[in-house]
Amino acid sequence: MLPKPCHQRLALTLASLLAAVLGVAAQSETNPRFIARAEQALQAAQTDWQADTNAPGPTGQLASACFDAAALATNDTRRAAVAKLGIAAARQLLARDPKSVAGHYYLAMNLGELAQAEAPSLAAYRLVHEVEREFKAAADLDPGFDFAGPVRNLGELYFQAPGWPLSVGSKHKAREWLERAATLAPDYPENQLNLLEARLKWRQHEEAATTLKTLATLWPSAQKQFTGPAREKDWEDWTARRTALQAEFDRIYPAR
Question: What is the CATH number of the domain that holds 105?
Answer without folding.
Answer: 1.25.40.10
